[in-house]
Structures are given as structure tokens and as C-alpha cells.
Amino acid sequence: MATAYAPGLTVTPRTRHRARRLLPILGEVLVEVGQHVDAQQVVAETLMPGELMPLNMARLLAVPPAEVPACMLKKEGERVEAGDPLARTKGIFGMFRTENIAQVAGTIESISSVTGQVIVRGAPLPLQVKAYLTGTVVEIVPSEGCVIEADVTLVQGIFGVGGEAFGTVRMACKSHDQELTEDLITPAMKGAVVVGGARMTERAIAKARQVGASAIVSGGMDDEDLKTLLGYDLGVAVTGSEQLGLTVIITEGFGEIAMAERTFRLLARHEGQTAAVNGTTQIRAGVMRPEIIIPLTREQLVTETERPHSAGVLEIGKPARIIRDPHFGLIGSVAALPSELQVLASGSKARVLDVLLPSGDVVRVPRANVELIEE
Amino acid sequence: MTIDPGQIRVILATDCGSTTTKAILIQYVDGVYRQTHRGEAPTTVEAPFADVTVGVVNAVTEVQELAGRRLVDASGRIIRPGTDTEGCDIYISTSSAGGGLQMMVAGVVRQMTAESAKRAALGAGAIVMDVIASNDKRRPHEQIQRIRELRPDMILIAGGTDGGTTKHVVQIAELIAPAKPRPRFGGEYSLPIIYAGNKDAAPLVRRILDGKFSLTVVDNLRPVLERENLGPARDAIHNLFLEHVMAHAPGYDKLIQWTDAPIMPTPAAVGNILQTIASRQGINVVGVDIGGATTDVFSVFDGVFNRTVSANLGMSYSISNVCAEAGMPAVMRWVHFDMDERELRNRVKNKMIRPTTIPQTLEALVFEQAVAREALRLAYLQHKEFATTLKGVQQQRTVGDTFSQTVSGGTIVDNMKLDLLVGSGGVLSHAPRMHQTAMMLVDSFEPEGFTTLAKDSIFMMPHLGVLAEVHPQASLEVFERDCLIYLGTCVAAKGLGKAGRPCFRFTIRSTTLNESGQMLVGELRLFALPEGERATVTIDPERGFDCGGGPGTRVEREVRGGTVGLILDARGRPLALPPERAAARGAMSRWVTSLGLYPEAGAAAGV
Predict the structure, then answer these.
(1) What burial class does residue B106 get, using C-beta atoms within 10 Å of its C-beta: 0-12 exposed, 13-18 middle, 19+ buried?
(2) This prediction's pTM
(3) Cβ–Cβ of A283/B346 closer than 8 Å?
């Protein structure tokens, strides 16, 4: 068998990228097909139903639940303002009445005579969706959002934390295997997408956060540093909602590992351009990897060419990355794809392949332990 | 469709998992049912196919090629009824594709009705996303927020005993109604809600929820505190799973038409076969399925079935969580050589972000099996805490109970009464040596007395679970002959003692074995007792140690052999490794050598 399937991360100088930007509930779409949009432009907005606040009115008024509806001064669906009287008891001959005052504005959602519970729904919350990708609107999803398309340079990382961010690409390291340390982070990197080389240190991340960088990208990081950054030991790779003040993306993996040279060179070529980044990672069914998207300039649209997609098929000669010890992180090309099962040092039997390393050495690894470098 | 079991000669069964669809063929050969061929193909519920039947046909086609028997016709449909040369007599299927059945459950008191509701949902094969209860320490607005965030396939509400107060369960319904949780598979259908609480509150709950949700009212699952009645709620969950959830999953409308029995959630089918085996053989069984993300534990003790799903205890997606929950020192105590902790932590995270990789070196394999021991141990601990007698039950005590400390809500899991322990899932099924599988089970479950160990050869239990519904005889025959690979028997002494002191004396008699001797505390020994062979084992425990007959009391049993053999375990229970790292490493090294778990250093000749 001369081929096998081993999809990898996409690192490409040019690809036509589509971003689907939808509201979580129905709302208003603010753009139209053919319109050019900037990354930070709002393309759709809506009002989310307000927070629900249950009130144990029977207890607040000290009456049986069945009497609560009669005590209510506002009916279901009626609007209340903070400070409005909500309910009042009849008292004894009109005296000694107990009253409840609304603490917040909203509408009365329900009044229960069984439990004596009154639910007030707070004011609707505005929700906006930004374009994220600078490009052209190619499709409108009525009442939900739109699809934006652009020719971009796309770099997928292996893992990230923090959500969407924007900034100018700034190279902090001189080479793909240089460690990203705090002394390489400068105040001039405020608002920037800072790109390092090999492992980024905990102090470098802290400094980037301190200077106000919007994102930091490098080859690897230590698990211990991630734990310090998050404040807890991450159990499963479902991220994106962290509020860290900056987005952190690693392109290769955990530990002392250099960024792939191609990736580094590609990002360096776009220094000074604006990038949209997203650290959201979801390693579950429907896998999501973090990404760095750089819309191409008019000149780059001429110089950068799109390369055919390999569709994840391992073939002899294809560049591949070894993704597990004992050769973790090494990059080479597929040299052979023997079809017979081989016994591994662990004693398991598995299908393997040979990888030719730049040093000229050939190493044999299980096929499950390599990924293609997608162009 | 009415099925006459006497006419069934060829059975086709599939299990549509999240990533792989597995098909097996069962045929009537020489007077018994045997599993003859198997095939698998990627599950196709996601784009670009978005039709589960594509994966089913691919898997069945593989079986067809291996069996030399045409099972799929030119239009891509399964051929039925079978003839001498083609087709099958019945086709059945289970499914956990698309994340399985995801439920939210709610009850009034967390330890009582909410726990009974959770038991009903888990028993029906669901993943329980959250349990909302009046006393779950969240304030009502926090509960509403949580309900809004979840996108379950269905909700089960319980609460109150029949004739008791209605107020609290109605309050739960009042929280759910305005939160308007949306179903997972799009907003085109109403979210199914099952009400199984106080029957007097049913009309009130109906008034609050009807019209906004698809409401089904069934008998109270806790009609009185002393009794659970989970059957009606479980049946309703299965029906709604088919009518609402499956019918909206890609291609399932077709698959439902194809099958001769209702499609079952995969874990429900596994529970079904284990309950059938336990009841037919009159034994207590524990089954475990350890996956990449979750670990399911099933148990049947004295006829009572329990199932737990330990979300985030798994070997790939959740490996980092296992290490975080157990702590790295707890994992490392199972490793018999030195490893750099910082590097290990990074390796764990790298496995988490690239979950499909496999251990290439022996060192990596030993470490993964150490993590597996902790994942299994934690999952079993959670299971023991959940599988309890009913909580909140008043007990009548007599003078004779004065010194008895038993309270309601104690675990019903008793390792001394455990007869059969079955393991399945990648790390157990694909371990290079069966000895490793056996020891992972023994170290993490700590069976006491006499326990038979087995593994599910190709994870066939789901297929057999649904088959048990339509053809119990075929299901049992295949389970006994083809499903389980018997590893052997573990004989372990309960009790603690000083290392090196006598623990028990033993004699073993079989056609190939005639052994006797003494086991010292801390020792582990293996005797080859091949599959199909049985031996009579007599144990004389020292005072303070119990092998099933009581402390210090002789016990004699017939034991079953297997691919590993007979393990005598004098390490004591609860199993305690030395706290100091070097001493733990020494103990582990001795046990590794006694069992021949791994190839000797330098003997590994692989890639």
C-alpha cells in the first residue's frame, strides 16, 4: 500500500477561506451580499432574552402560595421598573400591609399559585457578531448572520486558549528554534499578534499580557506554564472562553519544541499585516483547532499561489511531522509505507512508516504517530 | 414484526459508534449460534455523508466480503429474509453516534428523587449532563442559567412521593419552562420532557410545560421512599430516543425502518446483556468500558443493576483530566522505573491534543497503563458511591441492631461477592499481553476472594444486548463462546498485614496443576491454568485475612482457567502501595516480574 490517511494541520500561504458568522438566536443581519467588511465590523445583532430572576413571593410577603396571585400589583407580561411595588398583602383592615419592591427592571414572566414563585425577566441583552474575517460577504443566512470569504494565509495551531483577537503580526524571535523569553517582548507590541519560535516561557506570556499584546504564538509551551496561566490544570482540550487578556496559541505541542520552519517563515513574511486569531480548541467530535488568519494584500494576491490540497493522504515524499515520543516533533518526509504489521518496542502490533529526517537518518514509527504537513 | 426464534439462522447486528460502525454476523453452525465474521467502517453521521446508513452498509459490505455471503443488494439495502446463500433473517442495531443520548435530569432532593431520576437515565443508556435539584446548593437563577446553557436531547423530571407535597416538583417545572432549553439537534422539534414525579402534581406540571415542550407523563419513579419504580421512565426514555432524537439524527429515519427491533442506545444494550448473564447464571457481575473520553461501569449485584458514566475519565481526550484528578504521584506509583515528571506532564498534554497516537516505546506503554489503572480506579470509586441502597429510607431497628452501623444509602457493590469482572475498551482490549489486561483490572478494581476475569474480545456486548431482546438463546450462546475471552481467576485476600508475614496457604489441584504453598503479605504469583481447564483451589487464610469464607476461615472453590491463568494475590485489601516512591517502584518491579507483565529490559526487539 503506497498511501494512507493521516490528516494534519493546515499551514498555507494562500487559501480561499470562509467564515460563517451566526447569532446564537434569531436577530438582524446588518450586511448584504457583495459588501466588503472589516474584521471588527458588526455584521449581525440581536437582543438576548434577559436574565431570569425567581422570587419566592409567598415567603417575601409571608402569605400562603395560593394568595400570591391576588397580592400581585403587576400581571404576567407586564413591565416593571426598579423601585416599582410588585406585590402587596391586604393586611388587617387595610393596615400592616407587607409590600415587595422590584429590585431590577424587567417583565413578569410567571406567577405561580402552587409554589408562590414569581419570575421576573430582566431587560434584554444586546448581542453583536463581528465579521472576524476581512473580506466579502458571499451569503446571507436570513435572521442569523452571513458567510464571509477572503483569500488568506492560514496557519492552524495545535492548541490554544482564549477566544477571537485581532492585531498586527510582530516577530519576536529571529529563528524558528529560538525560545520566546520575556526580554523579547517590548511595549511596542501592544495590540500585536506576537510570534515566537520555540517554547514560550511563562514569563514571556506574562510580559505579553502586561504590555497589552492581543495574542502570542509560538512552537510550544510547558504544561506547568499553562497551569499557571489558567490557574488550574486543564483536563480536556475544550477551550476558547477563557478571559486571560490575550489569546495564546502553540503550533506544535507541549514541551521544548521549535515551530516548524515553514510556519515561522510564512508568518515572518506577513509581519506588519493585520491578523485575526482565535485560540478556540475543541478536541472532540467536530474537532476545532486554533487559527491565525491573515487576509492577503492586493500585491500578495498576485505573488502568493494556492497549492493543491493533499486531502490527508500519506504518500512517499510528502512532508510529515512525528507527533509522539521517542521522535516527537521531528519533521521529515515519508520514505516508505510497508503494508505488513510490525511489532513495536511496546510489544503492540501496528502499521508503520519510515520517515527520512533532514539529518539523513530514517526512523520507523507507527502510522498513527505522524501527521501530514498540509500545504 | 413477530420473530420466530426457531427460524433464525443468520443474524446481522451493527453498533453505530461515534467514530466507527461495527458489524457482526452470527450464524447457526452445528446446532449452536456462533459469531462468524466482523467488519467495520467509519461512522457517517457527519458531513459530507450525513447519513448513518452509509457507514452501516460499508461495514456490512466488509462482513459480506469476508463471509462470502451477499448481505446488501444492488440498491444498498440489507437483504432479508435470508436464504441458504444470501441475506440475513434479522437485522438489529445499537447507536451511540453523535454523542449518544444526552439528558438533563431534575428532582426535588438530590440524594433521593434526583438520584433515582439519574439512575433511570443512566440505566436507559444516557449521558447525564447535569442534575438539577431543589437542594443542589445553586440559587434558582443559577439553576435557570444552567438549564439555558445545556442543549440536552431530553429532560427527565422527578420529585415527590405519590400523595406527598406537590410544591417542590412544580417549582422545578417552573424553572424549566421559562429557561426554554433548546434541543441539541436543531430547533425544529419540541424538546421531549418526561415527568415521572408525584402523580398529584402531574396536572400542574402539565399546565406549566404542555405546549412549550413535548411532555410525556409516566408513573412516579419513586412512588414511596422505600421503593424505586424506574421501568416506566426508562421505557419512556427509549421510546422518545427513537421517536425524537434518533428520528432527527442524519439517516436514522432509514435505519429505524431497516431494523427488526428498536435501536438501543449502546450502553443500554451493554447493561441488558450483563443483566441477562447475571440473572441466567445467578452471579454478580461488573463490566467496564474505558474509552478515550469516558469510562462506563456496569454492575449487577443480587439482581440490582447500576450503571455510571465517568465523563472525563478516559485514555485520550480525557487523559489529562485523569492525571489532574488522581494526581501524578498516584499515577506514578504504578510505574516500575524512573521517569521525568515535567516531561511526562508534557507527554500527557500532547496525547490530549493528539488523541489518536499510540505508545511506541515500552516506557510509553507502561505509563499509559498506569494512567488506565487510575482512570479505572476513579471510575469504580464513583460507581460504588452511586450504586447504593435507597437513601432517605427510614429503618426500623431492634435491640439487635444497637451496635450495627449500617445506614440507608450504603453501597451495594461488594467485591467479595463479585463473581465476574469484564473489561473492554482500547487500553484493555489492545494491550500487547493479556497479563497486562488482567493486572490493570486487578489493581484498579481490587477484587476480593475468588473472581473470574474476562475481556470483551471485540466489544460485542452491545450487539448481544439488543439481540437478547429478540433472541435470548442466540445472545447467550454467542456471549459464552465468542464474546468473552477468559483471562483466568484472581484469588485475593482481604485484610492488611506486615509485608513478609504469612497471608494464606493454598493448594491447587487440576489435571495439569498440583501445587501447594504459602503466600506472604505483599506477594503476587501466577499459575498457568489454560483456557477451558478448571482447578480446585483451597485457601487457608491467616487470622485477619478473608478469602470469602470469613476471616481466618478455609475456603475451597472451583476456578476457571484462561489465557493468563490463576493469580494468587496476597497484597492485601484495600491495596496499599508504599507511599515512598522508591519503595513503591521496588514493589511494582517485583509484581511486574512475578506476572511477566512486560518483556525484560533489552529483550524488546520491536520498532
Answers:
(1) buried
(2) 0.85
(3) no
